[in-house]
Amino acid sequence: MRGIVAFYLTYLLCLILGIICVALVVHWNYSYRGGFAWDGSAKHFNWHPVFMVTGMVVLYGNAAILYRIPLTWGHNKLPWKLLHAGLLLLSFILSVIGLCAVFNYHNANNISNLYSLHSWVGICTTALFTAQWVMGFSTFLLPCTPMSARAFIKPTHVWMGGIILVLSIVSCISGINEKLFFALKENTNGTLPYSALPPEAITANSLGVIIVAFGLVVLKILSNQIWQRPETGYEEGVYQVKDKGFYDVFDYSLIVCNLRTKT
Amino acid sequence: MRGIVAFYLTYLLCLILGIICVALVVHWNYSYRGGFAWDGSAKHFNWHPVFMVTGMVVLYGNAAILYRIPLTWGHNKLPWKLLHAGLLLLSFILSVIGLCAVFNYHNANNISNLYSLHSWVGICTTALFTAQWVMGFSTFLLPCTPMSARAFIKPTHVWMGGIILVLSIVSCISGINEKLFFALKENTNGTLPYSALPPEAITANSLGVIIVAFGLVVLKILSNQIWQRPETGYEEGVYQVKDKGFYDVFDYSLIVCNLRTKT
After folding, report:
1. What is the pLDDT of residues B178-213, one digit of tens each?
2. What are the backbone angles phi and psi of residue A15, rounded to the nearest 5°?
3. How far apart are CA B13 and CA A150, in angstroms?
4. Cα distances (Å, whole numbers) of residue A155 to A166, A241, A242, B252
């Protein structure tokens, strides 16, 4: 019972941090950056951080920890699989809109695309996320995929899930940092420079810190083996290959012992 | 045997990526940023990325995976504990020198300290690393610490170890990105702007990508339960509390079952 209470308290923290992330990124761009438009102006760019933080961090993180919620531990996993895939698809769509926002803005203003390290890491993250979703869908939702293939791919799928979140956070922090250096220059529209830490800088820096905190809480939930969905077999089938991912409850002592004996 | 070969191949990749990281960060600052000095000039700043990447990423990552090397799996763990703590202390000292470099440079040039999101995340990472080292030393190296306390703290120590590496990578990527926007401006010393991707931008962006790749390989080594140091008891003692960290081989099925029965 104590484990369940601890989980729900951590999950509540995760939800609160996620809501604060979305509220702060909207507030930053609405109150300090002039709001939103889809017309090639600076307001067009403002959709980029909003959609990336909402899609690639908050929605993605919540989709990743779905199976850790004890409410989802009923016999039939299929509805939760569909919800997991659906939330991640929504997260992917938001990310693509966020990418369109920045590409459109750059193209409308003759700014080069994909030159900064932020953009290199960001585009790799989105590419990995796309591959992960397609692989996840074809492995875990197509009925024709053999159980042995699902069991074989699951550890990689789970590990990649955590890594994509880490890369999303790397992209967000470098992007917010870059944007603040661009936007907060001395004598530009009367704003104070970033180095003077005006209210906008405090707001966006705090957003960055809360994104990191959200990511750490999600990674903690994913990594805590005691909060895993308990399953001794894989749905109707039985694991053919033992899991060896981040988060699995299966016992590896025997494998390790065998390994040592053989060497 | 196959597990050992796979480990050593991954470890070799980790070593190669680490060496490339150090070589690239030195090359970038030596060949493109004018080299090194300790005189308050821009060359003084150049020590900052070199020491942070070498200390907080490469040396730290290698220290973190020390116990995964099968060579270290002998009966006596103490020499490896001392090496683990020693490498991390060296990593910490390099990081402090790296921080001194940037603070000295800022102070000598009347530039504010600790205002950017990069610096906020970076200073939190160093603070966490300090706390982790002190906690690790007092828990695992002081003979007076009870075995039960060691077993209780170990999962948190292991988890925090991975998280500090993630935060170091976040700090490095945002820092390299920031530095390139500062350094590569049109009409500054005849350099091409960052957006034109001159050779310096390609070099430093590649450094960022290789830092990320190095971090992912280290996290993969840490998370692969089959590569863990096998230990059924804690040194001379026996675990009093079951581990529930990222990387432990112990079986949690029973705990999960008990949890479900009790609720």
Report:
1. 999 999 987 766 789 999 999 999 999 999 999 999
2. -65, -45
3. 28
4. 17, 10, 9, 17
Given an 8 Å threshold on Cβ–Cβ distance, is B225 in contact with A244?
A: yes
Distance CA A235, CA A77 (A): 8
Interface predicted TM-score (ipTM): 0.88
Token pair, residue A80, equals 């939760």
Report the sign of the C-alpha dihedral through residues A158, A163, A169, A175, in that order: negative
Helix (H, G, I), strand (E, B) or coil at B244: coil
> Where exactly are the structural domains of chain B?
2-262
Are A169 and B170 in contact (CB < 8 Å)? yes
When CB atoms are compared, the residue of B4, B177, B246 closest to A117 is B177
Nearest 5 degrees, angle CA A187-CA A190-CA A193?
Answer: 60
Question: What integer is the mean pLDDT of B30-35?
Answer: 98
B4: its two tokens = 């050992």
Using CB atoms, pick whichever of B170, B201, B246 lies closest to residue A115.
Answer: B201
C-alpha closest to that of A180 among A18, A22, A25: A25
- Residues from chain B contacting residue A203 (CB–CB below 8 Å): none
What fold does the segment set A2-262 form as a domain?
Four Helix Bundle (Hemerythrin (Met), subunit A) (1.20.120)
DSSP state of A197: -
